[in-house]
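Entry 14. Ran structure prediction on the chain below.
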Amino acid sequence: MLKNGLLRYTVYRNMFFSFVLLTALVIALVTAVLYALFSWSTAREVGKISESMLKQSSVVSNVIKDQVYNFGGLMLNDKTIVASLFDRENDRIKQYHASRVLRNMQTTYPFIESIGIYNGLTETYLDTKGATLEQEQFLLTQISSKNKSYFQLFPRRILNPGSSKESNVLTFVLLPSYYALLPAQGAMVINMDTDYIQKLIGGYKNDAADSLFVMNAKGVILTHSDSSRFMENRSSTPYIERILQEPGESGYFMDEIDGRKNVITYVKSADLDWVFVSHSEYRNLLFNMSTLRWSSMGLALAIFVASLLLSARLTHYAYNPIRGVLEKISGMQRHKQSARRINEFELLNASYSEMTEKLSSLESVAARRQETEVLELLKSGDSGTFERFAQSCPGTAYMTVALLIDGLDEFRTKVDAPTRAFAHEAILRTTTELFGGYRVRAAVIEEGLIALIIPTPEGGAEPRDLIPLDSLFRELQHGLDHALNLSVTVCIGTVAQSHEELQQSFEQAQSGVQRRFFEGQGNLFDCSTSCDTSEHELAYPSRQEKSVIDAIRLRQRTRINREIELWAEEISTGDYHEALFYMNQFVSSLYKQLRVPRSENQEINNLFLNFTRRMSSFETLHEFKEALKGLAGKLSSDADTDGDERHAEIVDYIQTYVETHYARPDLSLELVAGEVKLSRSYVGKLFKAHCESSFNDYLNAVRLERAKELLLQTDEPVQSISEQVGIFNTTYFYTLFKKYNQQSPAQYRSQMQLGRLKA
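Output, structure tokens:
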């Protein structure tokens, strides 16, 4: 039977191969998922173990830091070293004794390559290996430029005096003046041999790791088993770059190194800002992965062979009922003798097409007649029309529903006329199918507007009480969005029992356009109640309008969007028609305030013209708000080039005015804003944006600079000087002067006069 079915029957053959293909895909998917899960789980456990062992290696940083701090404390506790470190007389005897103490200390700590102390007061440098000040000049320059902490680290290569051999060392610099009350020109230099650090790390090294090294936070190698890689910058290496960017203190991940998959583990040390890194080849960690892979493939193949036998049995039992149905519908039995191969699809398609043509001709005539009835009833008609409709669609009452296609303007632009007509027809057909049991009548009133008339079912109650309208219309909206990518707003009108009430019900349903404007598209509105969104008269939000204009002028994009949101929130509490009026008023105000009459700025006028043309197509307040943000953003961008020069001129004028009239006690932001004919808030924000300080701070700085000059040039009392610079409150002048100069006016005058005498 299997061979005969595969050779003769198309459906039989398709069913068999579909079963086989489905089974094969399921087996492959399950096998791959199980293998991937096992591999991932194993890799995670290995990574956690590697991370735990690497954390043990990271204790080296604690050990080294403690040793350096202990050694630094030992040096500072030695009077001979301290005396030489801060000697102001360049005493050779002190230097000799200090050198002996340093050599004795070095013999006690074999891991130290050399020790040096730098006296900045006399520009002398002592080193246990004889390094001179000239040889260490580069290091000392770095110390001077980075004098921000007690402890500093510099990886470097140093040339051993008396030979051409270089040593790889980590130089730890201690600046005693950071904590102690000692002069700032002193430093202790401890050069630690990297071989010692490598041996110390090797004692903690995980044997599973192929490589373990230490680098700093910039990706520079501090110690490595391969000494040639010392100070090598690896920050551009992909996996090193990822480690440096990771926020966590430790972790692991998979990456390729030299084309091979590796488990990379890292631990960041907070003590020395070091990063310990190890990587191991993935295949060396999972020894049985190859065996597991082949075992999985063998098991999958065995299951697939069993599925072939099962597919043959399933096909045989599933095809028998299908064959009986096809024989009754299309006469397949008559073709058995005349055809060697039988295509059941062609036979069934021919029979179905014949029946469909007959049914379509009948349905089309009935559907067109019903649509004509609805159009006539809602557009014009009379009581006689209503009576005839009630006979063909009986009911004690009727309810109208308006379906509004959302985004109609975009729908017209992107879709051609035949496709739009098809979409309207599809909505009609989908609606009649959903409400098939309720004798619903539907018709396209105009493009984008479809009307439904729902009769009252038996029982006499309103349709909304007997029909699950919410669930049916939600299903309709979901189906249209999924099938045609169309969003539809549903607006339900009142219940009617006469022709006049029916037309009023439809007008009520169409008022859902107003609610859609505020509440958004794709909603379901019951318009049987009033659609008025406000019971009070809305005041125009002029304050937000002014804030938007100021933000555009100052090119503050974030503030522009925030103020537009506030403006839209204000008008959303009003009436629909008020909102439309205020929208036009807002755009007009922007045009009057921001347009420039010069011919080269015609682009701004075109922006407003195009935006005004689009306003009638906005169906929701959200659409208008987003489009307004785009317009404001473009206007702000245009202000980038036209406003920079003007803004700079205004700020320069204000600075010159302040430097000339600083002695006026009434000098304020309001006064200079009046001078440049701009608002106080706008001038304040403009000044701060250009000068990175407020107007008051700038005015105080100018006044205090002049006060300092008068304190040095004259012997007048502080009160007189305070009044001369425009500050008539002497107490406030004292407070302000001390805040800016960390000393009182009298102290400043005395200190500067004493400095002149010494000079």
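DSSP finds 30 helices and 15 strands in the chain. Will compare against last week's run tomorrow.
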